[in-house]
Amino acid sequence: MNDYITIVEFFTNPIFSASMISSMLMCFGSSLISVIVFVKRRSLVGEALSHAAYPGIAISVLVCAPLFTSKPFLFPFVVLIGAFISAIIGMKLITFMERRLHVKSDSALSFVLSTFLGVGILIASRIQFTHPIWFGQVQMFLYGQSATMMSSHVVLYFILSSIIVFFVVFLFHTIKLISFDEVYSKVLGMKVKFVESIILILIVLAVVIGIRTVGVVLMAGMLIAPAATARMLSNKLSTMFCLSSIFGVLSGFLGNYLSVNLSIYIMNRHAGWKISLPTGPMIVIVSVMFSILAMIFAKERGFLVRFYRMEKFRLKVVFENFLKDFYKINGGQSIKGIKINSICIIFILHKFGFLYKKNKLYFLTEKGKSKARRVIRLHRVWELYLFECLQISADNVHCSAEEIEHIITRDMENELSKILNDPKVDPHNQEIPVGDL
Q1: Counted domains in the chain
Q2: What is the pLDDT of residue 231?
Q3: DSSP class of residue 148?
Q4: Predicted pLDDT of residue 286
Q5: For the segment 25-36, what is each residue's pLDDT rounded down to a tens digit?
Q6: Can you give the C-alpha Rg of the chain in angstroms?
Q7: Using CA atoms, how far apart are residues 155 and 18, in angstroms rounded to an integer?
Q8: The CATH number of the domain where 203 resides is what?
Q9: 3-class SS of residue 357
Q10: Residue 37 lies inside a defined structural domain of this protein
């Protein structure tokens, strides 16, 4: 039975430490850039640039293969330089097609993505026969292979991540202004093109950092998921940067941890199975899971909170309509004569003090009557506003009032009363109750 790898071993054992630290640095740098890309609504740029980097990788190996035999430590540096140059060319081509040829953004991205990937695969097929030893190295960049990282990768990724952090920190206010209002930035005299060029380089750096770990195919996930998670939890850009980087680092850590220990767990439970969960896809899966959890449980935007607010409002409408109808039919004296759709409504209103029971009949309490009068008042005040101020026929104001009566606040009610000079009757000459609740 295999033993599980402890957290300490992931950072101290030479077999695991390079992969763990490199992945965390990669996710850290990519998550910072993902916020900029997300805010600028250019999330699919990462997908296009990751594919655009592949020909540079293949060409670097094809041209510099003799150097790798005598100086293998040069391989990661040369390959990433080639990827960087190729991705820059791809980004320039996208920009040229959008601005000069007036090609739509999605079409330009799709063209660069498919064309560069096709060229990269074509060159890689040539390497398969001319340099078969290095063909596997080229292929690993398609899907990532963080398990084979070395200490040189840690140094390289630390440098690249530090560059990204440096520019994000020192250009934060400029990036913020340009991302949200580029026209105003130009009016203030900012060097928008210069900063845009830096942002472009940072995006390419993030792509170059990530493709060795998660691969060309999955890199887009690391340029979308961390920022999407942070956006569900905050409206503030600086907080988004912090949260995105935290979730990015956690994704890198948990991706490595689960990749190893989950594989061990599965093989321990099923002795006949030979399974290995790749680290790159696990990192992306963890990052996406953070996004899904944030979408469900986020305090303001989460699905559960939104569902709770919708259900709360729906029940409010049901209860207010019941009280209003009850009051209008018999003044709240008894429940006899009103059609009841659900006993649950009676039970809840009774529990909260809007109804009381006497001789097997239910009556409106003073609290219930006051609430009913307020709903009727808001309904009739809104009808009068539509009739007098918007010149809508009295026959056509009822439906709108049925909807709006449940969302008019106290301030809105006071403002309407001022506009209508404290009205007494609605367009149908019905009395408007005094607002006493």
Answers
A1: 1
A2: 92
A3: G
A4: 93
A5: 888 988 998 898
A6: 32
A7: 10
A8: 1.10.3470.10
A9: strand
A10: yes
Q: Do the domain assignments include residue 393?
A: no
Give the Cα separation of 260 and 366 in Å (integer): 66
Best CA proximity match to 328, nearest among 379, 272, 395, 373: 373
Would you say 124 and 58 are in contact if contact means Cβ atoms under 8 Å apart? yes
* Strand, coil or helix: 355: strand
64's CB contacts (< 8 A; 6+ apart) are 74, 78
- CA distances 388 to 215, 338, 374, 379, 392, Å, are 65, 33, 21, 15, 8
Alpha-carbon gap, residue 351 to 331, rounded angstroms: 20
What integer is the mean pLDDT of 404-420? Answer: 90
CB 200 within 8 A of CB 175: no
Residue 428 forms part of a structural domain: no
Q: Tell me, yes or no, if the pTM score tops 0.70.
A: yes
pLDDT of amino acid 378: 92
Closest CA to 173 of 161, 189, 185: 185
Largest CA distance in the chain: 100
Distance CA 258, CA 238 (A): 30
User: What pLDDT does 281 receive?
Assistant: 84
Q: How far apart are CA 229 and CA 294, in angstroms?
A: 6
388's tokens: 């007098």
Tokens linked to 417:
């009363």
pLDDT-derived band at 159, boundaries 50, 70, 90: confident
Q: CB neighbours of 220 closer than 8 A, spacing ≥ 6?
A: 43, 44, 46, 47, 50
Q: Which residues contact 386 (CB under 8 A, 6 or more apart)?
A: 392, 397, 400, 401
Q: Which residues form the domain of 154?
A: 7-301
CA 402 to chain CA centroid, Å, is 36
Smallest CA-to-CA distance from 364 within 346, 344, 339, 343 is with 346
**Which 3 state secondary structure label does DSSP give 407?**
coil
d(CA 412, CA 54): 60
Q: Which residue has the higher pLDDT, 361 or 225?
A: 225
Q: Distance (Å, rounded) from C-alpha 324 to C-alpha 293?
A: 40
What is the per-residue pLDDT for 287?
92
Q: How confident is the model at residue 338 (pLDDT cuts 50, 70, 90)?
A: very low
Cβ(354)–Cβ(415) below 8 Å = no
Cα–Cα distance between 208 and 53 in angstroms, integer?
Answer: 8
For residue 39, is it within any domain? yes
pLDDT band at 1 (very low <50, low <70, confident <90, very high): very low
